[in-house]
User: What shape does this take?
Amino acid sequence: MKYILTIDAGTTSVRAILFDKEKGNIFKVEKEPFKQYFPRQAWVEHDANEIWQKIKKCILKVCDGVDTAEIFGVGISNQRETTVAWDKTTGEPLAKAIVWQCRRTSKICEGLKNSSKCNAIHKKTGLIPDAYFSATKMRWLIENNQEVKNALEEERLCFGTVESFLVFKLTNGKSFVTDVTNASRTMLFNILTLDWDNDLMKLFGIPFSTLPKVVSNDEIVGETDILGKPIKVAGLIGDQQSSLFGQGCFEKGMAKNTYGTGCFMLLNTGDMPIWSKNGLLTTVAFKVKNKVCYALEGSVFNAGSVVDWAVQNLGIATDANELTDLATSLTDNENVYLIPAFTGLGTPYWDMDARGMITGITRATDKRHIARAVLESMAFSTFNVLNAMKKEVKTEIKELHVDGGGSQNDFLMQFQCDLLQTKLKKYNLESTCMGIIFMTGLATGAYKNISELKKEVVSKRNFMPERTEKEMATFISGWHNALKRSLTKHNFDK
Assistant: This one.
């Protein structure tokens, strides 16, 4: 065997990646975008069947001319929290998938936040009641979609995150599973017992029969005949945990930040969860060889999506490169800030009703200022998350591993480094992909253990602070003043 096949099911596109284990590099990649649906303000949906069809297309292209006998197995990393409802008998979606960014269940979550249930949810799941997570999306579908309601009554209903749906389709309905990392993002999963929680299922009205079996990240979960001959389906992990794993953050105290559609920072906390008091989430980092590892997570809902908005909606640049050229034509932001609360604010505020805004506009403001504010908003949002993590662990985080599309922007990375006053280590752009390659390799025997994986992880470039903390203080103060105007209900002291 020579190749490891992986699926990267992201928020705006899907990819199939063929990794050459012998040469230690990516042999071939095929990518397909898919449609985003915005039926109402702050609602976001996907067509799960379109995702599946695009993945099939990518797999067939990337494996064209490859002997399936040379493939160790196929693994999946995926956008987390996005909720799919499908028919157990036909495998067909019953409704549009509700995307992690969607805020339609905000009012339900606000009610939970202000009730006695909030603490119980946090203690069991490590999460804060928010429309971000899957449980209220499931509840909404049961209450508002007749096809979902009928399937529930007739015991045909399956709920799952994207990887669960894809495994079901790959195995022709034989495997209905999810992994511990995706399960830990539903608000139904007890991260201490590592199983679905009866009290939470009752609270949200989600029957056990509709939920998949929970497995470790390095398990073989079935076989697929998508290429004509059986291939093992092995290795499932949520995209942010996959990035943590792919950047070699195997040990306690190691942290990474991914600059994608959103920004997501994870800090490995070892075999014991830390219950945050500073707006961070406690989540399962990975479960390998029957050993579970936990993480603290900070979530910024809009990062790369703000770049897309500036290019596609505002039209101030033709692409991200031109946007950067505009931004760097200024020596600083001239007090113009953008708060990227397009779908509310995540860590540490969890303000679902906050909305985006641009502050500091004068008659002299032009598209260069907006471009710079767009890019800097990612760095400022990350600054808030890292500060929350420092408060939690009461120690300095001496280096931060970075990946994702935004990490390829040297201006952004240097500005981020100066803000954090922390060394940045840039790894492979494909860290999420490498995480699932590693996990699939562990499941199928392509890799023996984590010690072997450590040799595969090498940083590509390091950034060190070029400006002092004092020099950055004015920018930070300006950002916080702008942020106060966007917040609605929460204490800015966070």
About this structure: The two ends are 52 Å apart (CA to CA). DSSP finds 16 helices and 23 strands in the chain. The chain has two domains: 3-240, 248-426+464-494.
